[in-house]
Every structure is written in C-alpha cells, then in structure tokens.
Please model this.
Amino acid sequence: MIGCSHQNAAVDFREQLSFTTDQARTAIDAFRKRFPAAEMVLLSTCNRVELYTAASNTSKTVADQTIDDGPNRDEVIHFLADQRQMSPERLLESMIHRSGDEAVTHLFTVAASLDSMVVGETQILSQVKEAYELACESGSVGPLTHAAFQAASRVAKRVQRETMIHRKRVSVPSVAVGEIIPEFFESLADKTVVLLGAGEMGRETLRYLIDQGATDVRIANRTREHAQTLATEIGGRAIDWSELDQALIDADVLVGTTSSTEPIITNERFVKISSKRYQRVLLILDLAVPRDVDPVIGEHNEVYLYSVDDLQAACERNRQERRREWPKAKRIIDEETVRFVGDLHYRATGPVIQRLRDHASQMKREEWTRLENRLKQMNVSEEARSEIERSLDRLVNKLLHPPLASLRDDAAAGHQRGLLEAIKQLFSLGD
Amino acid sequence: MDDFLRGISVTCFVGSYAVALLLELSRSIVRVPGRGLLTIAFAVAGLFSHAVYLLVRANQHGTAGETGLFAGWYDWSLLVAWGLAACYLVLYLRRPDTIVGYFLLPSILGLVGLALLTRDWAPFSRDEAVGFWRTVHALAMTVGAAAVLMGFIAGLMYLTKASRLKAKQAGGSSLRLPTLERLQLMNRQCLVVSTIAVGIGLFSGVIMNVNRWGFVAWGEGGVILSGVLFVWLLVATGFEFFYKPARQGRKIVYLTLASFGFLVLTMIGVFSSDHGRKPASPSTISFHADFLGDQS
Model:
C-alpha cells in the first residue's frame, strides 16, 4: 500500500493527488497496461488517497502468491507521479508505504474507521467498498485483493458490532438530532420541525431529521429558492420568510443554522407569539454561530434552548467514549490480521502438501504393483495381500505426518523457518 | 316536575342514542349542517334521561324490602350503558372528526337491549348486593388511588427530567428517564383514570351503604374526603380538558401533584375512622369479654 491521508499529508497535497471516479477508472486502466500481472485497488476520498497493489502472476497459483508480491514502491510512485503530473520526489516525501502484514492491518484500520479524521464515522466503509467495486468493474482485482477487501469489510462490521466506537455521535447536528431530540419526544413523525437556513449545516441537519422520521419539516430561508432546492433534494417543505411566525407557533422543534449576524428570533418576537403556543414544549437547537435565537428565550418556562456550546460538550464526551473504545477495536484488527495472514500462508501450503502426498502415493503404488505380482506368484492369500497393502499405506502416512505437521505450524507462523521451500527442495516438488 | 322526571322511560334515552347513531351513520352518506351539534345534543339528552331514569329507579326502590339496590342484571346493564355513553360523549367532544360512535353507540344500545331481556329476572338480595358493590367499591378505589400515586410519581419524574433538560444535561447519561412527552402523557392518563376510578368507587360506595344500612354516613371523615378527592379530580380533569395550556408542560404535572395531596388527606380520613375496616362481629366481642374476664 502506498498512500497519504489527513494523518501525514496537508490538504493541498491530498487535493492534488485525489481522483474523481472517472479519473480513478482511467488510472486503473493505465495501471493494468503498465503492470498486467498486478492487482490494484485505488481508494480516493477527501481525507486519503491510497493505492493497494498485489501480485496477480498467472504463472503462479493463487495459493503460491503472497501479499508482498506486486510492483515495488518506486514503480508505483512513478506511476502515480505520471498520473497526477507531480514529481516522484515530492510523492516519496509525503506518502507512506506499507507492505505484507502491515498493509493488511492498515486496510482493516481504514475500513473500520479507526484511521478516520472523525474516528468511528461510517462513511469510510462505503468508500472502501466503492473503491473495491470500481476495481472489480475495471478488472484490476485478483485473488489477493479480493480476499483482502472482503475481509476488510467483514472486519469493519465486526468492529461496529463488538465495540461502541460507531455508536457515539460526534458531529453537532447528529448529536442535536440523535441525542437531544429523543430526550424530549417519543417520535418526530407527529411533530412540527422548523429549520432556519438552507446552508451546509442546514442540509446535514435536515438529513438527520428525515432519517429520524420527521415528516413535517418547514425550511425557512431568506432566499426561498435555496430552501426549495433543499426541500426537493432531501425532504421537508420550504416556507416564506413571512410565514416564520406561524411556523413558530406550530413548532415543536426549532433548529437554527443560518449565518445571520443578528438573532433572527428575538425575545420580543417570541413573546408576541408565545401566548398562541399554549405553553407547549418547544425545543430550540441553535446550531448557528453567531446565534439565530436570543438566549433570553431559553428562560421561558416551556422552552428548552441548546446552543452549539451545549452540544459541543456532548460531542466531546462522545469523542472521549470513542477513544476509550479504540484499544478494543485495535485488538480486533490485530487478531483479524493474524487470522487473515495465517489463512493466506496456510492456503500457500495446500498445493505443496497435495503434491507431496501425490508423490508418496505414486511411489507406494509403483512399489505395490511390483510386490503384488510377486505375492501372487507365491500364492499369498487375498486377505494377506490386503493386510500388506494397508500396512504400506500406514507407513506412508506415518512418514509424511511429522513433516506436514511442521509445515502447517510454520505456515501459521508466517513461514519463518522456510519449511515450505525446504520441502519443495527435499522432495523435488518443483514450483 | 317530579311527575315529568318520573315519566322518563327507557324509550327516551334509547331514542336519543338511536338518533345520535343515525346522525353518525349519515356522515358517510350526506352532509348535514350542524350535525355535530345535533349529535352532541342527542347524546347529552340520552345521558341526562338515562341518568334520571336510574336515579328515579333508585329512589323508588327506597331502603325497605329484601331486594338490593342496583342488584340485578337489568340495573347493571343500564349502568354500564350509561358509562359507555359518557365515554362516547367525552371522546366525541375531544375528536368530533372520529367515528367512535360507530362502535360505541351500537354497544350502548346492545346493553340496553340486554337490560330489557333480563328485566324480569329476580334481583339479588340486599346482602348479595352489598358483597357485589363492596368489591366494586374496593377495586375502583384501589385503582383510583394507584392512578393518583402513579400520576404523582410521573409528575416527580417530569419535574426532574425538565430541570435536567433546562440545565442542558440532555443525552449521554446512563440514568435516563422517559421522554418529556411520555411523562406528560402518563400524567394526563393518570389524571383521567383516577377520576373515573374514584367516581366509580364513590358511586359504588353509596350503593353499598344504601344496601347495607339503608343510608350513607355522609358526615364520616373517609366519605367526606373521598368526595373532596373526587371533586378535585373532576375539577382538575375539567381544567385539563377545557383549558388548553393545562394540557401540556408543567401545569398538568402540578395538577397530578395536587391530586396526590388530596389522596393523602383522604387516606388520613380513612385511617382515622372506621371506614373500610371489618366491624367487630358479636362473637369476637364475646371472646374478648371472656378473655378479659378470665384475666381478672
């Protein structure tokens, strides 16, 4: 794996290096032309650009390949430099390189969102999946990348399932909608929500509101067209700025997200309409800076006002809880890496074991054919001949058992003792 | 006037309920201006004549004789029908757009039909009636007291929750209470349930006492305070029903908290009198006397 992320590269560098979907498709095609035997997946998000490569040597069987195979670091750097018209030296300076077990651990860590800017955000898993699917479409994946990316998806889900790392919300709108509103209301389905502003914050909040089941969301923006666009894209209903007072009378939840420099809902304005609310509970989530709602309004009896500062505290608390879950998630990733690499090594021993068994079987068969003819001439009974043949089988198995057991143990340990190669050599099993 | 009231028969309220049902059924066929008001008027007329009929019947029964007051299938069916009619009126007033009448009014008429079918059945004796109404009284008062207590607890939870939310302590806590909305709903439900149950309890207590002694000891502390509790609950429910701001937020909570105060007063009244205690039987008194005599 060669890549960069928010952890080690500045945003302008990441922007230069990033790929759109079309650019990624073109890059994959170019990569395949340059390295026909290699596998490749390109992951490009706003926070990271990473290239995962492995060998796809058709002269080798799947089991014979290892995760260290593939184009080397310099070759990939030069490829990237050509693609993005950047100097290889600059890329070398700012990009990290991981190979073997480390590359697998890195992929699992990224997919499980432990390496994300907002640890635990779930978007990265879909981005990893999209990158893998794009590579599948382009035909640049092979057995190793298939196995690695499918395992990454499984590992990310295991981390989600077994830790709380994804369950704590950390963005202000998600905390506002996901944690504050459920303290007040059983459901948003029968509530009136008034959203002030149609900018980025408003967009994100609206998404959460709709996900949470809100059906009556009224979007008020000084420029009605923006509110209308947002309502069409995500949901809700745009209202005129002049309808705001009536919306306030009907509202159960008011969310402020505008960039207005002065409060939009002043205390005087609220006092005028408050008698028509019949002291119904009103939850105000003022996510705007500067504030959209006069803080004095929070002193009214049935009004509960939460500003960004109040929500930031909840976000920080959740961030800390996520951090506390980090070691548990890391343990899962380490465990899964060991298992994945072990499986890969174990798969590599399969054909060798098979060839060794075939080889021994062949030798036994030849020996038995010769011996059987002699035994027939000596009028040895059928029963005795069967017993002798079984005895030969047992002998072969007993002879093979210790080397095969050692081979399996060595495979599980990552072929550290080199027994696989030794057995190939000792028994002339070839490549 | 007395003769007029005595002239009210089953036909009067059955007719009123039947017209109300016809008005309800006509909803899906024709638009009738003022249908809602007419339905309410007939439902009220039915309820009124139904209640008068029952009261006159109780009055005619008197305190003499061996048969119990409201001690037969005829009376019970009519009482339940009246209760259902009251429910219908309340539900209709709350949501006139719903068709609860399609279900409730036929049931009411069915119960009146059952009453007429069992009209000639001999009623139970006074002793048996006392047993029946005592059970109803005890059960209803227990449910009423439990509902008041539950309302009080829900009220306390609401105030705790509201003060925590005001102090910006929403989310993240492992010591979580139900939502503000749920607690508010619990308060309202407890208020309504306790009013109905205490009302039934009071009514059944009156019937029980009339069957048992031939009169009601209105001056007894337990009875007076039960009556006060019921009147308070009725006022609180009416306040909640007719005064919109009292339906939500802290006001409904204050109503249930005050109800608990009245419940405590009632319980003091009950415990400080003989109300609700088993009277000492003659044999028990004799036993005590013998025992004391032996001691001396």
Q: What stands out?
A: DSSP finds ten helices and no strands in chain B. Chain B touches chain A at residues 161, 165-166, 168, 170-172, 176, 179-182, 184, 244-245, 247-251 (CB under 8 Å).
